[in-house]
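2 proteins. here.
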Amino acid sequence: MTHTRFFDGRRLVAKLVCFLAAGIGTFSLINPPAAEAQLPQTTIYALFPSGGQKGQTVEVRVTDGKDLDELDGLWFSHPGIKAVTKTQDSNGKKVPVANTFLVTIGNDVPAGVYDVRAHGLFGISNPRSFVVGDLPEKAEAEPNNTPAQPTAMAMDSVINATLQSATDVDYFSFPGKKGEKVSVNCRAARIDSPMVALVEVYGPDQRRLVSERDTFRHDPYINLTLTQDGTYLVKVHDLTYSGGAQYIYRLGVHKKPHIEFIMPPSGTPGATEQFTLYGYNLPGGKLSDWSIDDKPLQEVQVSVALPAKATTLEMGEQGFPHEVSADGFSYVWNSPAGSSNPMTIYFADGKIIRDEQTKEETLTLPGEFVGQFEAKNDTDAFRFQGKAKQKYSIEVFGQRNGIVMDPVIVVDQVIKDKDGKETFKRIANVGATSVFPDLGDKLFDTRTDDPYYLFTAPADGEYRVTLRDLQFETRGHPRMVYRAVIREPKPDFRLAALPLYPQAVNTGGSPAGITLRKGDSFKIDIMALKQDGFNETIELSVKGLPAGVSCKAATIGPGDNTAEMILTADESAKPWSGPIEIVGTATAADSKKLERVARAATVLRPVANNIRAEARIARSLVLSVIDEVAPYQVVADVAEVKANQGRQILVPVKVLKRTGFDEAVALAWNGVPKNSNITTQNKTIAKGKQDELFQVFVKENAKPGVYTTYLQSTVDVSYRRNPAQVDEAKKEQAEADKKLKDAQAALAAAKKKREEIAKASDKTAEQKKTEQAKADEEIKTADAQVKAADAAKKAADKKVADAEKAAAPKKIKVYAPSTPLVIRVQPAPVTLSLNVPGGGALKKGASIDVKATIKRINDFKGPVELTLPLPPGVAGVTAETVQIPADKTEVIIPIKAAADATEGDLANMVVRAKADFSGEALVDAPIKLKVTK
């Protein structure tokens, strides 16, 4: 039978569109060529194998990536997984085997999925997934491209494999017995592979029994009861027959427990509670009421101790971006038959009530109603008691639980007459409401079809909530488990942090670790997922930074959902690698302090602008500082400023130039929303210059809030890649040259010795013959040593040439952010307008009278003081401080130019109004002045 269960085709459709657009011929969805280069940064796309058995040591190779120079370690998100570089003997020395490591997995490491990163000359890489299991593992044996040459695998084992190239098809065989319940589990998308895996199983009679794709989080999973004794065949390929080094997968054939879903899907943080596991091969389990494709599921009761901290997220499997706002932890059932597949158990928000099918449950608030749309036309309902004029929020977690569904919320007010007869008044019918917008700008898509509804109860009494899937008439599945959460509004937030490879703005995105050079800055995008109307200021900070690395203030203000944090390394920073945490703190409306640690995020593959990236939730956030000096660094001398509406901010900016760099640096402001009504000034700091003054103007109609902005630099840099490698190669060359000369000298000495024996007059013929034979052996040995030394010298010469070629100066584009500027926009007490005579023409030694008019706003009624502050670069222009009393709105300001006043059009000139309005408030009005002789 061929079928695809519970198929979610979003990933497949995206790939097929690209495939068809490419004309089906030579097709690559991986690593589109970058438009412009950037300073090297370690990046990995694949490693092999992508997992191992606990208690074992496995050889792991980084098989695809870029800037993989001098990889010296692997870093895992679990401390019980250790890696050392594999070495081999070379000329009597132990030398590293390129990109290859021996990974030891401790017996105490729980089965599950972890992050692995590579570290090398250019820092720590982006993460890739690494699976820890309890079954024996091995690699596929090529060739295995036909049914006649499968790679044999034992029952209860895992094969690590790669689709080596386009059109590659892999075959595997395993022994089976009639009646055995077997799981065939293919991990591809769940370990960051671009592969859309299709798996087929054939029986001993060569008949195809099943074909699967995208049945479990974009990967195939097959549960099969074997029909006869014999050898079974498994066929694996990519749906579009793509292939390459990144097309890795893990194929497991086993009789271990497999969990399809857990009920309830959530539990109380810090409590030990009972859960029912539903799946196959569950030791001690009994048949449940559920079946999938006519295959009955087993169920078993387990007791689980939940972690106490309710605001964390540790996904069981690969976490999709739209799941990042959920809270939960990874759970693996360690049964007598082995460990199960990892699942996520979520943290409940209140008492949990399970749908019982036969009646409408009553929920106490806050609470969770959990159920499943197990069949077509399934609808579930529950009731709760509401109070008049009280607000209630209802949201359903379906897609955010990793389930393919599109839930709908229907709310009715229950009205009873005097006889108790019920009628229902419809209040709302709510479908997908985009609980969160696409905060990651197509790189980390936080949108979801899960519905959210906030309403105010019109009267005291009972309310009914009915739930269904939008496509309930055509689909239903036991795996469609949901959580419906109802509560009085509880404003809160979660954070996600996305490091991005430095590149030009609006050109897409690529995977990245956080790597800083000495005297360098790195940008991280922060997304705030806000709950129940949360609209307070979130202050962002970083924990765990090493000495010499800092992060200036960053904030997500009311009305905003994103910010950018800039990490900066001093020139004195030492090489370092380790985990860090980004933390957001806020004060809720009820004065409660909230602290939330950001969930890490990662892009999986490079993607062009306006194309949605494949991305996932990462399991760690890691920083490295490398021992290389950045060619330049842009520093904004102003870190934070409070500005009233109608205020000019002048930002002195400096470019610190190093290592001989002295090119022009183009700078453009980023991070200010288009509708903020804050204007910025972009400039280029010319070649040979280091300083420039930038103007930011907060207009009168600027939206109050907190804005984090920075200057994005674009510059051509002459860069030498790893010049130290040249020095090391020359050392080896010198050693090889000396060995060659020594070997040549030894050969010459051996030949001379033979000649002397031949000329000797004091030796018999027999003695000469014996000694000459011995000398011939010495010559032969010395000659071999010369040839070996000569080969080593030529290899060393080539190594020097290659190193010099690699280190030759090359022009590359560099995009580095400046240190950030945080602008806190506050309401203004007045607006200020100017009437400047003669267009601002002002002769030296003369003056003009400028009429200033204010309009008091925001209930301000006090006096105002006016001044003429001089910006840097302007001198000799003055105005006396004048006052506008509380009962006046106009005043004349005489502005004078001294004989030595700065000539020409004066930049950045303003008249400044100062008032006492919740502290000192400053409002500026630009004024054009041109000083002439």
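next one coming up
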Amino acid sequence: MGVNGKNRRPTDRADKPPAQARSKRRHPVLRHTFRAVLLAVGSACGFGAAFGVGYVASMLRGLPKVSAATFTNNSAASVVYDDEGRVIGQFAGDGDRQPIASLNQVSPYLVQAFVAAEDKTFFTNIGVNPMAMGRAFLQDLLGHRIESGASTITQQTVKLAVFPEQERTLKRKIQEIALALEVSHVLSKDEILTDYMNWVYMGRMGTDTVYGVKRASEILFGKEPNRLTLAQAALLAALPNNPSYFSPYQFPQHALMRQHYILDQMLANHMISKAEYDAAYRENVLKTLKPPPMSGLPAHPYLLLDEIKPLVIQDLVRAGIYDNAQEAESALPVAGLKIYTTIDLTMQEDVERVLSNPQLFAGTDKTYRLPNGKTATDLYEAGFAIVDNHTGAVLAVGGGRDYLRDAIDHADLPRQPGSSIKPLLDYGPAIDTGLITAASEMYDAPTRFPGAAGQPPYEPHDDEPGFAGLMTARVALYESRNVPAIDVLSVLTPQVGFSYLSKMGLGPGATTWLGQPTVVADDENHLAAAIGGLDNGVTVLQMTSAYSTFANQGVWHQSYLIRQITDESGRVLYQVDPATHQVFTPQTAYILTNMLHDVVYHPGGTATAVGARFPGQFISGKTGTTDSLGDGWFIGYTQDYTAGIWMGYNNHEPIDPANYNLKFTLWSDIMAPILAAHPARKPWPVPPGIVFRTVSSTSGLLPTPLSRAFGGTETDPFVQGTEPTSYDDVAVEAKYTVVGGKKVLATTRTPAADVEVGTFIKLPTSRIVDWAHKIPNGVTADTPYLLPSALDPRGGTPLDAGTAPDMLSASQLQPPTGLYGYYDGAEVWLGWNSVPGATQYAIYRTTGVDKPYQKIGTSTSTSFVDPSPPQGASVVYYEVIAESNLSLSSPSRAIAVPLLPPGEIGGNQSANHASANDPGATGGSNAPDVWANGLP
């Protein structure tokens, strides 16, 4: 008895040529096919015979002919191109296929498993399922699309061999049905199933693209398919439904779930006994898997196999070209598609060259112990992505170091982002909603949040030992302090923060390109999300895309890699249409960019290694580190590009501190040729509505003579109307005395000889973000300098409880006078009058009277040379501020220096000059003076 249950021996194609084996059963059937299809359409749709005849006849015009050769021929490979039309690679036409000659070469279990999984009526139907076919006709006629499949194995075989390139339409469905009916008359059931098992796409296994059950069985289990156990046969039959999702190598639990379903169906349909079912269910089939092959790689394997391929499959299915991922995936090697990507092949090769450099990773491999006691090697891996800020186009992707040693795509792998999430989730939304400014006061101090029911309280801490105390948001961000970030999200609320993430493709429900979940709804329930404590994490591609929002004036362009897909004739099957969202205002985006510039270039920033490689450039970015150095991130951006890198181990071993900064080396090595071709030397454009103020870096208010006692000053951009107008009241003077080794406030009963005057920090509790959750009397680096709260125990009233300087007193530094300057054709020379009490002078510059001034340098003398006046500007404006150790003046009167070639103003002068000719000017609010008639 044959495996199909009929009393005839299956035809073995090894015994005679296929054409000869089938010729005696071939006869004209088109007339019968036409009648059968017409009958099915008529019964399902209930339309008149006249309409049915005409409709079906039109659909059958040009019906392909099938023969024995139909199921052995293959079509053209699909070719992948970069953004300039250069070939990246192709999806090979035939893949790794080793055909079987008959069902005698496979286990009966495998036959039964495929029938149970794909077509339970296979051995009794006429090649189609009329009820399912009628349902599909109705769906198309009523909704103009096929919503249900229910294709038989015969139909799938026809589809695989004859229609791999055609879209999901009613015409294709009718032709597929017609050919399935014809094939059922021409071939036996065994032959059809044999063809199906040879043509079916089984997925990518290691580096091989596998078709047919024979090669799949050899790779997965190291045996011929006729030796498969029931459990193995059911697992093998699980793959074709969705080869990526049910891959036993990538998603073993998914594969096991599908295998269990097939075993259930086999039992329900009396194909196996209960004893066989129980034994197969208990068998640990995943333990019998063999390592996948890792040879025969295409060029750019991470890019081609792990990034481009899954995206093409998704795009084709979403465009309605194929019913499901399995059909799209099986069509790629034979459909002759042309796939146009956004990849810049030169950049891509630079990324791969750096990531594959063994010298950079010398000594970084780690050994870890497996559950079975054996050991394995874990590579120090990297994932990288670079996108075009203006469009969202992905220009290059780095999936890892060596595909033969580690085939995991680390650019699309969820990992916890650490502090790199702070600008996106915490500071950006908080500034955008007006909750904070760049100068808002943060208190990095012991903090406690009550726990949920039955849970302990949450007490966050920094990576560094201890707590730093009072600081501005700018300092907290570039030093990557954890507690201030959590304070911000606590007041902002995670719901508001995640609403911003959602606009950048990082909301709950986000997934990797392969469909793994990244951000989930539960992430909104944890304040630890403020510092990257997400359930699953995010990918390099997602983070790089999100950061491009800051570089693009607050506008997020959805990242995309596939631009267009056409068929062999050039007909467009898919065209990208990325989403665009205004996430932040242009002012918020600029303020964050300005703050993140300090991460790279401020001496206290966490990414100064990048700034040292690219001095004088406008690069902003943020680092990220998880507990025990499990993950290392850096996302940096210029006006044109955003590039992100993640580094770590698959098994989550901690990164050795000596190797932690390798992420900066890799990022810089990749970006060096890009920044050489596209240097980032042009300042970030300042949007309207931004004003700049120099403030105390401790209080965030206008500085006083005492402000330098506990830090210094910083110049921050503010949304107009949010800039500070009051002076620093945190740095105060107070009269104190020492009693028992402790400072206490001096009182009216303190002996005059014991009274001292000191400068202290007076905590501004009403302004500190989330003061309510600070642990009372928590110790910070500021604790020794806090204003004493205790009085002299001898009694009396305090002499001075802390006084800020009177900024209206005449003791303030006066603004510089007599400012003049001239342009010699290459540099601008400045000079001014000395200010009594000043120890240095700060020089500021702008290119327009309506634009903010930016600090360009300091001088301890009364002159300064600007070596690089802004290119393209015709006039440059300057002002100078006098500074001492305890005070700042207001700005001098501004001057405007024309940047014209010498001699073009005032006849034969050798330079263009400007001066502030009002020596009594006390501020820079008046229009700048222009003077071009010689030095004053």
